[in-house]
Amino acid sequence: MHGPASDLPVRLVEVGILAGEVTILDDISLTLDAGPPTVLIGPNGAGKTTLLRAAMGLIPVSRGHIDWGGRDDAPPTRRAILFQRPTMLRRSASGNVRYALAAAGVPRSQRVTRAAELLTLVGLSGLGDRPARRLSGGEQQRLALARALARVPAILFLDEPTASLDPAATKAIEDIVRAVTARGVKVVMSTHDLGQAKRIAGDLVLLHRGRLIEHGPAAEFFAQPRTPEARKFIAGELLV
């Protein structure tokens, strides 16, 4: 399940996003290319979710521009996004995935097999016939990941996918992130959990008040943060 590279790299160039007179993102320049996961961190209201939505192509920019694989009009056919609280359709777990496969243009004759493969990938192989809305929170999140992967994305955006999950469910999601990364999918994920960022990030992006404060390899970020804001954030101090 290698994600095609047609939408990579995603380049944000001096991107600003306003909501009325409020600046949500301010002069963000960032390149998201193939490789290990990129993890967005920062306090609440830093702009992480807005950046993910903009990079997905869901919201327009107020200034600057975004391009995907060198094109600024690329339809989001090779991108997928998972929000914190995904909605489950009123059908079985397998039915949810088959619906996503149909929306992705997969021929009907292939959907049952593909759905089974995706459910296996996310650790739900024995739950295909169970109503999706009766799954646990962690299972629903894994099912939502299977639906997102039905698009065979080159890049997968995850908005704090483990925010409300227990440690076991969190580990299951992290294992899926590693698995899809190994298959060639670029994962860009926001989290408030620095321990999680250490475990899975290849590179880290620290946002604060809509600005990009620091970006670099995760190991370097934690060992030698370059900015006062990064040092405070790692130490658990409040950024103002």
In terms of topology, how is this protein built?
Blueprint: E1 10-19, E2 22-32, E3 38-41, H1 48-56, E4 63-68, E5 79-82, H2 93-103, H3 108-121, H4 137-149, E6 155-159, H5 167-182, E7 186-190, H6 194-200, E8 203-208, E9 211-217, H7 218-223, H8 228-234
Parallel strand pairs: 3-7, 3-8, 5-6, 6-7
Antiparallel strand pairs: 1-2, 1-4, 8-9
Helix pairs in contact: 2-3, 2-4, 3-4, 4-5
Describe the 3D structure.
The protein is of the alpha/beta class. It has a domain at 5-87 and 153-234: 3-Layer(aba) Sandwich (Rossmann fold). The protein has 8 helices and 9 strands. The protein has helices at residues 48-56, 93-103, 108-121, 137-149, 167-182, 194-200, 218-223, 228-234; strands at 10-19, 22-32, 38-41, 63-68, 79-82, 155-159, 186-190, 203-208, 211-217. A 6-stranded mixed beta sheet has the order 5-6-7-3-8-9, sandwiched between helices. The protein has a 3-stranded antiparallel beta sheet with strand order 2-1-4, with helices on one face. It is globular. The relative contact order is 0.20.
The major β-sheet equals: 6 strands, mixed
Structural class: alpha/beta
Low-confidence stretches: 1-5
- The assigned CATH architecture of the domain at 5-87 and 153-234 is 3-Layer(aba) Sandwich
Helical content band: 25-40%
Widest sheet, order of strands = 5-6-7-3-8-9
Descriptors:
single chain, 240 residues, alpha/beta, Rossmann fold, disordered N terminus
In short:
This protein is α/β, with parallel strands linked by helices. The strands form 2 sheets. A 6-stranded mixed sheet has the order 5-6-7-3-8-9, sandwiched between helices. Mean pLDDT is 93; it is low at 1-5.
